[in-house]
Amino acid sequence: MSSERIIVPLDVASEAEAIALLERLPEVTFWKVGLELFVSSGPGILKILKNQQKRIFLDLKFHDIPNTMAGACWAVGRYGVDLLTIHAAAGKEAIAAAQQAVQEGAASAGVVPPKVLAITLLTSISARQLAFDLKIPLELPEYALQMALLAQEAGVDGAVCSPQEVAQLRQTCGDDLLLVCPGVRPSWAEEGDQKRSLTPAQALKAGADYLVIGRPITAAKEPKLAWMRICDELAAS
Ligand SMILES: O=c1ccn([C@@H]2O[C@H](COP(=O)(O)O)[C@@H](O)[C@H]2O)c(=O)[nH]1
Q1: Residue ID of nearest Cα to ligand 1 atom 4
Q2: Which of 97, 209, 224, 225 could join 66 via S-S bond, C-beta 3.0 to 4.6 A?
Q3: How confident is the model over 17-38, as pLDDT tens digits?
Q4: Does the C-beta of 213 come closer than 6 Å to ligand 1?
Q5: Which positions fall inside the Orotidine 5'-phosphate decarboxylase domain (predicted)?
Q6: CB–CB of 82/111 below 8 Å?
Q7: Residue 58: CB partners within 8 Å, gap ≥ 6?
């Protein structure tokens, strides 16, 4: 079912607001906990989600030296979440350390390790910003692909990329690499700070395994109606 391939972010500032959102959208099976909620309220929300049998994407976007990545990833390994993000730009050694540490952390807690996803390039970065602000002398699709290949060589389970690059990553990296796309926007939703969007149907057709769709649902007047509209559009596509 395509609705199970939609991950909704709990981008709110408190556990109480997160619980209120969970109550408004009981049909959502896969939730993302990101920096805003985790930093403001801590890991308690993970237990709440687990008690409701929800799947969890812990989007903490680690980007640090190998030793620090390993320590943080070991600790995340113990939570029993499904997905964890790190930045591919942290480098091969740090990615490999992260991958090994989640396995060890999970084993120490007797839980299944999360799949580690490497962020190739944040979906809020445009080609112009990549060139002029970040001074990266590669075309954006080539840079995203190189980051995915680096992460794949270092042993990650998957990558985060924009829907605009997902077809190329799928073709080059193969079917075993899990591809998760944020920056997805239905035709009726505002782009906001996302720079490289496609619609949900286009993103799935291009090869995404999972879509992260936040504000078009969570900031809608009626989140449930927005969720249903997206699910209906996917079913009709
Ligand atoms: O490259 C990335 C990596 C992560 N995100 C996260 O996804 C959601 C998107 O929310 P929207 O409201 O649908 O824009 C958000 O939690 C980001 O932190 C991303 O957008 N891009």
Answers
A1: 182
A2: 97
A3: 999 999 999 999 999 999 999 9
A4: yes
A5: 5-230
A6: no
A7: 32, 33, 38, 46, 76, 79, 81, 83, 84, 85, 114
